[in-house]
Write a structure and sequence with these properties.
Radius of gyration: 19 Å
Structural class: alpha/beta
CATH superfamily: P-loop containing nucleotide triphosphate hydrolases
Largest sheet: 8 strands, mixed
CATH topology: Rossmann fold
Number of helices: 12
CATH class: Alpha Beta
CATH architecture: 3-Layer(aba) Sandwich
Number of domains: 1
Number of strands: 8
Strand content: 15-25%
Helix content: 40-55%
Order of helices and strands: EHEHHEEHHEHEHEHEHHHH
Distance between the termini: 63 Å
Shape: globular
């Protein structure tokens, strides 16, 4: 049976889109048919995170009635399916949110897991993703401001009949946090699913237009994404993969410039 999760945050900058993309890839890597959708139609950036360029059809065109959802599905790492939103304001203005119900119905027939990357904040566009998913997962940073905004999303979700599945703490630096895990659980009134550490590998992967679970599978953040995927899908966490091995060019350069003892 398909499970749909909306990944939400109270404010921008929490790393919500990065979490959505890497979590989706981790699920797909384990053979789960997974689709992620960029629901932030005004400030879309899921395509950028995944390195998709010159996309001819996006969710904007689908919601404008100009294309089928089949034409807006692209393939990512491990067979992950991606439905990006467009970057143009014209496309955003032409999109009809009322068509979202049909889009969601079509996508649920194509996958085991559906992850919706919701817009940050409590705008009208942000409400729809909170209502259509089985559960909403809150992405928070261990900072008071982030938690206060996430609490607003929790209250809004429960007010409109949605369900909160838990919180994911992102960019946790043990030496520079305002609040700890127990305090976050008490403040939000939900359980913390897992903690993703501050990890320079995430930035390196982003610079390479790829995902950290692909580029640095042995990193701390990648381990966390695999744990979260395992908790959602009910499969055991595998032993950590090895880091990408040294390539031929690196070995050749090392051999050519190696200093003799």
């Amino acid at each position: 049976m398909i499970r749909a999760y909306t990944i939400a945050s109270g404010k921008g900058g929490t790393g919500k889109t990065t979490v959505t993309a890497n979590l989706g890839a981790a699920l797909a890597q384990h053979g789960r048919k997974t689709c992620i959708v960029d629901m932030d139609m005004g400030m879309a950036n899921l395509a950028l995170v995944l390195g998709l360029a010159e996309i001819p059809v996006t969710l904007h065109e689908v919601l404008a009635g100009e294309a089928s959802i089949r034409d807006a599905i692209y393939e990512g790492p491990y067979g992950l399916k991606i439905v990006p939103s467009g970057l143009s304001l014209r496309g955003f203005q032409s999109a009809d949110p009322e068509r979202l119900k049909d889009v969601m119905r079509d996508l649920t027939e194509r996958c085991d897991f559906l992850l919706l990357d919701a817009p940050a904040g409590i705008s009208t566009d942000a409400v729809v993703p909170l209502t259509v998913a089985d559960e909403v997962l809150l992405v928070v940073n261990p900072e008071i401001a982030s938690l206060v905004d996430a609490l607003k999303i929790k209250i809004l979700t429960e007010t409109i009949g949605g369900a909160i599945g838990g919180a994911i703490i992102n960019r946790a630096d043990g030496e520079k946090i305002d609040v700890n895990r127990k305090q976050i659980e008490k403040m939000l009134g939900v359980s913390v699913i897992d903690t993703i550490p501050e990890d320079a590998n995430v930035r390196r992967a982003a610079a390479a237009r790829t995902l950290v679970v692909v580029k640095s599978p042995g990193s701390g953040s990648s381990k966390a994404f695999r744990r979260i995927a395992a908790s959602l899908a009910g499969f055991p966490v595998e032993e950590e993969p090895q880091e990408v091995q040294e390539g031929f060019i690196e070995r050749l350069a090392r051999a050519l410039f190696r200093r003799e003892p």
